[in-house]
What we know:
Strand order of the largest sheet: 1-5-6-11-10-9-7-8
CATH topology of the largest domain: BirA Bifunctional Protein, domain 2
Bound molecules: zinc ion
Structural class: alpha+beta
CATH class of the largest domain: Alpha Beta
Largest sheet: 8 strands, mixed
Oligomer: single chain
Distance between the termini: 46 Å
Shape: elongated
Strand content: 15-25%
Number of strands: 16
Number of domains: 2
Amino acid sequence: MNDRWRRPRGTQDVLPPESARVERFRRVFYDWAERYGYEEIQTPVFEQTAVFVEGVGQATDIVQHERYTFVDAGGTSLTLRPEGTAAVARAYVEHGMNAWPQPVRLFYWQPMFRRERPQAGRFRQHQQYGVELYGAEGFEADAEVILLATRILAAVGKTPRVRLNSLGDAACRPAYRQALVAYYAEHRAELCEDCQARLEHNPLRLLDCKRDQHLKAGAPDIRDFWCEPCRDHFAGLTALLADLGVEVDHDKNLVRGLDYYHRTVFEVDDEGLGAQNTILGGGRYDGLPARFEGPAVPAVGFAGGVERLLLALGDAWPAIRPARVYLAQIGTGTEALRWAERLRAEGLPVVTDLLGRSLKAQMKDAARRARWAVMVGGQEWAAGRAPVRDLVTGTTVEVARDELAAWLRARIATLAQEQDGQEER
Ligand SMILES: [Zn+2]
Ligand SMILES: [Zn+2]
């Protein structure tokens, strides 16, 4: 293909069967979010640029280097949504959700846009899942959000290990920040170019640098700076999570890239993904709605990338073979087509040949697309019996034609139950 028609660099087409894996995960996410009482929010794909500059923070990579910003025909500066939290906070303020029954539990499943360097599992348009819990400041809210995150990852077969930290609050963070700047200023000459700039604008992110790892060990420890309420919040959270069986590692260098965090930050890693191995991250951002001139409400949440998670899961979490029925026509005629229509009307997913192929060719085709093949038009069929082949086990049974729909429906229900069983724990 001529390059001019290719999809933009860093984007992807999600094709079957990968699209079925995405959909399989989407259902797990919606199911667990709903079990915790979260309700879906959908925000626009683009916002006025100020929402992200204010909301995400001027000094972040997302805002400085990775924005897709354009001016529309009316002269308004718009930015494609790079992350969910700032957009949801904007919606929270705009719709006065602080007047809703509290707390407000929201989840989203939306594409995000960042002009990042393309690499495995990282796309310039990628799908994110996330939750936002507004109006609860106690550590129990942090625990609920972390529990939900671990439940979702456990449902797809991961054994999530959470790294947790507290960045302090307005009372204690400034002193820590100052100590951090003082420490790194002493080592200014050893810092990479990015960190020289971070020292001025975003000192907490100095701890994030992959190149200046050797300096981390001597850096001031945030725990020495926590005020008493921050200390209590962290202690309460870790004790509650331990009680509920969630394993947590305290990572004193965990800061996360965005500057709206307050107290709790957490991440879940995957060993298989190499250097960029975080599959989910979140934290508390009590000050965020106030940035949009909204009320001072507490908030906590997390977000994860769908592509990165599916990459991390690999073959251990395949697309499920569709519970589809293939009606193969023996000889010529339209009996299979007419029966397909009848079964669809009864709620069953059914495909037929459409290409006039031999029975043998149809069965080969069926093995690729369906779970069962029903042979229509032979002697058994004429006698009121439907031969049904299970394309996974290879066995064939005869079912009374009149009972075909009910028989197939029962089989599909059994399969669905088995699959849910796998994803419930
Ligand atoms: Zn650095
Ligand atoms: Zn504090």
